Amino acid sequence: MSEPTSIALVTGGNRGIGLAIARALKADGHRVVITYRTGTPPEGFDAVQMDVTVTASVETAFEKIEKEIGIPEIIVANAGMTKDTLVMRMSDEDFESVINANLTGAFRVSKRATKGLLKLKRGRLIFIGSVVGGVGAAGQVNYSASKSGLVGMARSFARELGSRGITANVIAPGFVETDMTATLDEKRRGDIAAQVPLGRFCSAEEIADVVSFIASPRASYITGAIIPVDGGLGMGH
């Protein structure tokens, strides 16, 4: 096996979409570092504990990575959460905690990563957004707002850092096969799939394939883009 081409950091890379992304980047030859907040990280990866909602935790994790492994060149801001409820029942805490994890958390990670990317004079910032950032979703005012915010943030990073060879893009998945969606009954799954032009859910691996491309030299002239992986659900947004 050839030497790793670069160091990739995947936040929330211990399960679901994040783990699929970590596996794809590792298969591409990158040395992959995953972050996790709780639990035990999967084997086969460098791992560091990080809570993206706490600036000090982000700083400590980056210091550890840079000291023991090196400067991450590919940053995948994937860590996030949901607190779904109808807007009339949504508390300030429900709203603010989701914004803090999904949007401000991505900012904390990307801002800290930028310090190293500017030294390298190259890099990839890849934000995992959502189709609901463009189309909205009942019961997800907080989540939709957080994912929509990633677009403006990524495009601002793209304009600010582009001259240094650093790109910033948003991957926007639709309905994905995860542990959460696996618990839905068949009727509900069918109703959801019927909204999607391709008529099915997306696999985590299909999202990871797109991240793999955006992280590669083949995507060196793509920045400030929203790349949908949603089966056509959000087309036009």
From TrEMBL:
Keywords assigned: Oxidoreductase
Xref: Pfam families: adh_short_C2
Q: Which PANTHER family match?
A: 3-OXOACYL-(ACYL-CARRIER-PROTEIN) REDUCTASE, 3-OXOACYL-[ACYL-CARRIER-PROTEIN] REDUCTASE FABG
Ranges for domain Ketoreductase: 6-195
Q: Which GO terms describe its molecular function?
A: oxidoreductase activity
Q: Does the keyword Mitochondrion apply?
A: no
Supply the Gene3D superfamilies for this chain. Answer: NAD(P)-binding Rossmann-like Domain (3.40.50.720)
Q: What is the lineage of its organism?
A: unclassified sequences, metagenomes, ecological metagenomes
Q: Name the family.
A: Belongs to the short-chain dehydrogenases/reductases (SDR) family.
GO biological process terms, alphabetically, are: monocarboxylic acid metabolic process
Q: Oxidoreductase as a keyword?
A: yes
What protein does this entry describe? Answer: Unannotated protein
